[in-house]
Amino acid sequence: MSRNLDVSPEVSDVVRAADTAKADNIKRLWNKSTPYWFVSPYLIIFGVFGVFPIFFMVFLSFHHWNPVAGLGSMRWVGLENYELALTDPMLWQAMWNTLVMALLSGIPQHLVALPMAYLLVSLGAHARHWLTTAYFLPYITSTIAVSMIFYIMYSPQSGLINHMLRALADGTLTSWAFGWINNFMPIAWLQENSLIRYSVSFVVFWKYVGFNIVIYTAGLATIPNDLYEAAKIDGASSFQRFRYIALPLMRPFIFFAVTLTIIGNMNLFEEPFVLTRGLQTAATNGMSISNYLYRVAWEWLDMGSAAAISWILFLVIGTFTGLYFWLFGRKGLEGN
Amino acid sequence: MKLKTTAGLALASFGLTVGAMAADIRIDGFPDYDSQLNRILPAFEASTGHKVSQLMNNHGDHHNKIATNLATGQGAGDVVLIDVGFVGSFVDQGGFVDLTDRFAPHASNYAEYAVLQGRGGDGRQYAVPVDLGPGVIYYRRDYMEDMGYNLDEVMASWDSYIAYGKELKEKHGVLLIGNAAAIAAAYINFNVEPGNGLYFDADGNSMVTSPRFVRAFELAKQVRDAGLDGNISEWTEDWYEGFKNGTFATQMSGAWLLGHLQNWMAPDTAGMWGVSHLPGGIYGSWGGSFLGIPRQSSNPDAAWALIEHMISADNQLAGFQNIAAFPAHTGTYSDSSFDEPIDFLRGQQARQMFAEIAENVTPVAPHRGDLIAQSLVIQTALEQVLNDGVPVMTALRTAEAQIRRRVR
Questions:
Q1: CA of B294: which chain A residue's CA is closest?
Q2: What's the main place this protein lives (chain A) (predicted)?
Q3: How far is B90 from chain A (nearest CA, A)?
């Protein structure tokens, strides 16, 4: 027996109306959700590769895990990984190396880029475009390729740098001034612990100075010409115009560029890694925190400890950036 | 109807493809093993019907990839090649198929020390040796014999070896070795006390402050301080140049260095080289490779069939001919090719010497902390001693404290 037989026509109408309303609701919901279906591939990919790893890394940093043994072998160790990392002399050494290399490469980047950008802007549009492109080229070249070229150039026996120094030391016209270099030959730029930080820093400086020049050139283009002209009429020299007009108005750009440098340099990985041949030479002084992180994770297969180190690195970068914002933030963002 | 037929055909062909793929296996390795595989795989495919593909990456990337594959439970080949340096860290972690029963009938044919190296802490066989690295020292004959030095006297002990280096430097301006670090590594690798591992004793305690390590570091330091090495990093252009130009007179390594020297590193120096036992006549292993089957392999039977093919006497000899991979199969050592003189070594019948070393190497027990210890001792502590003047015992004690914390 069917239940419908017991239902009066009025009730049947109500049920039909309810069904229609339900269908309408579903349709409306479907229509509303359409945009989300379109963006869902991005959301899924971002969730899987962006959000999930962050939470997984927090989870991982409280475990001891050798990846070779599979996911099932994770062992809860609480704060042991953090304690291990913070009392690890190698981590502190890596931290110090990173800081030194960040400063050695970072400060000259801006000290050179700012006047250079000013000079380029003064040269006029045509020269500026060509030269900016030339300076920007190292930035868009693969870091690995750049590091490998420098690795060959730094080679003690066959490298271009030592060849040039030898030529200067032995040259008939130059030997009186550069003869002393022969006492130090061959200079092991990447094998000597005392030299490696300078050698790595120079590569980083060379690669990123062009990027900063482009930022500063763009910044200088925003300064109205009237200001320079008025200063000129008042008798301001070229240096004075740079010092009293360009520099103060460039503050937001300097602030932006320096923030990027702090974050980038504290994350330094490829340059020291390639130049030390995967940490095989001069590792003590050439190893950055990211390099150490890689060694703990992929050479020593201790993923939990590596996760803890990466959170420590995150906090360090956060602290430095925060400190910079606190010290220069208000001035840096003046006018914005 | 047409649509149904097309869909049916597509489904059938997909099924067939999947079926055919299921029978396929893949081997993951590093060069120059592809040269060897290209020659020996056609016979395997013809006899078994399995199609074998290869995935070759450079040495470092290959081992990183295996670690990732084992961690995620997918992506590894059915057979993977593992360098001896990684065996301790890899096989003891449970990611590989237990090959004990399958390998048992063959085990007695392979160098005992290498068989033991492929075992986990539970005594089961997880990796099978496919080639060995009998430890030797290559030397320039033109500096040694042509200049009137006696090889046996030079190699009598480490002291006589260093004394030779001093004379070479003073009288002829030639360096003893490219990098003093190789001397420390050789001494550590080749003087392992029976029953111990390279860095850990049988109970898993660190040994890096033991007399073996102290002496190794002191020897290397002695060579560096006397200016007998060039502080040239191995496997770099400068190192290859050193071989070509005769910048240094000796180099310790596995027997396999011969293949690299004569094939691409310094082919023009043929006839200038000789090979000898290490100073003091010690035996040891320097390098070597293993084969394992990851547990994620969907076809472990076919994978084992491939391993059996690769470690068979004939293919071991083929590997020796093709890529100078020294056979792990000791039954091959009686082959006539072992008596052949080697032109590159000025006609020396060196293979007999390699075989004799392979059969006399003291077994070294692998330990899961070997990779950590190796980077803390050889890369960090030794570098501090040689380059920064840190006292030997200080550097070793620091390394030991680090190892104790890191090997958990």
A1: A68
A2: membrane
A3: 6
